[in-house]
Write a structure and sequence with these properties.
Beta-Lactamase; disordered N terminus; six-stranded antiparallel β-sheet; 2 domains; alpha+beta; 350 residues; 45% helix; 23% strand
Length: 350
């Protein structure tokens, strides 16, 4: 028994070392499955990552499974009991999936018998699950279950770090793209599109403080219906006013007093909102908001990434406005010079 524990411990240290050696997301996935298959002698495996915004999971890596399994778009959590248990931090096994109503179809299509599902945990969050499959009936012993559970926790940390690194890289590219554009409409549209993609949201909007006192103007949107956009004027006092000063999270709009049109949000299928101010020279000019279809608590990493995107947006908006201002002044000056020398009423196109 002691010899087996020592072997598990030594093997675990080696596997964790190999898994932790990369920040490349795809390489991390491959390394995790390589090591799981090697140490537990299973015939197939996969990694699922949960999308908390949509209550679904996605297959991000698969080994020795069909293309139909590997490329399925989403797995609804309500249809996968093992996935739901993994999200509670539990490691679950099924000795013979062919006898389990929830997984009988999967067992028949993939030729599998036994399943072990362990949570992928990063800090205090479950970000997905690690699945092991055998093609013969197998009872995983307690040592194997404990080993996989611990290895999955380490893998969760590595995947979260790699995903964060990937997001930061994407954010850097977005920042360069946004801040290099001088057309204000293009800048605003890019911000809402990238915010939606980065946060896995249903949609996003930018609301800028309007000249008309006490109201905000919807200046750019993405992923939202025309009916929702025509809901009525947005009043500063009634619509997340505090967001003009600091970032706000509305985890469940149905229970919030800070939203102006709760019935319209419900019709649109919006359940939670993340909102942050757009700042220019230390002054709030409006807000950037993303809308989720499920109640959601945002991690510190999510909120920080969103804030960085908002900061990029503020810089880009200021650049675009300054460019438009300088361009307008130049055109006015050119016209004045042209008229001063009595060359006509219209300045040339220079």
């Amino acid at each position: 028994m002691q010899e087996m524990e020592t072997r598990y411990r030594d093997d675990f240290c080696q596997r964790c070392g190999e898994i932790s050696c990369t920040l490349d997301f795809d390489e991390a996935l491959k390394t995790i499955l390589d090591n799981v298959d090697h140490c537990l002698d299973v015939q197939a495996s996969s990694i699922h990552l949960v999308d908390p915004g949509f209550q679904t999971a996605a297959v991000v890596a698969a080994r020795n499974l069909s293309k139909e399994y590997a490329y399925q778009s989403t797995i609804r959590l309500e249809e996968s009991p093992l996935e739901r248990e993994a999200l509670k931090g539990k490691t679950i096994t099924i000795a013979d999936a062919r006898l389990n109503p929830a997984y009988k179809k999967l067992a028949e299509s993939e030729g599998i018998c036994s399943i072990l599902c362990a949570p992928l945990k990063s800090k205090d969050r479950i970000i997905g699950s690690l699945w092991l499959f055998t093609r013969e009936v197998r009872q995983f012993d307690q040592g194997e279950i404990s080993y996989v559970t611990t290895l999955a926790s380490q893998a969760g940390v590595v995947l979260n770090n790699a995903k964060l690194y990937q997001s930061l890289h994407t954010l850097s590219e977005v920042g360069r793209a946004i801040t290099s554009r001088l057309n204000l409409a293009e800048v605003l549209q890019m911000i809402v599109e990238k915010a939606t993609q980065l946060m896995g949201a249903k949609g996003a909007s930018i609301l800028l403080i309007a000249r008309q006192e006490g109201t905000m103007e919807v200046s750019a949107t993405y992923g939202l219906s025309e009916r929702f956009l025509k809901k009525g004027p947005v009043h500063v006092e009634k619509s997340l006013k505090e967001c003009l000063d600091h970032q706000m999270v509305i985890p469940d709009v149905s229970k919030s007093q800070d939203v102006q049109y709760p019935e319209c949000l419900a019709e649109e299928g919006v359940r939670s909102i993340l909102c942050t101010p757009l700042m220019v020279r230390g002054r709030s000019i409006g807000t950037l908001r993303v809308y989720m279809v499920q109640p959601r608590e945002f991690s510190a990493e999510d909120r920080e990434l969103f804030q960085i995107l908002s900061d990029f947006g503020g810089i880009a908006i200021e650049n675009a406005r300054l460019y438009n201002h300088i361009k307008r002044d130049y055109e006015d000056l050119t016209q004045d010079v042209w008229q001063w020398y009595d060359w006509g009423k219209r300045s040339p196109n220079i």
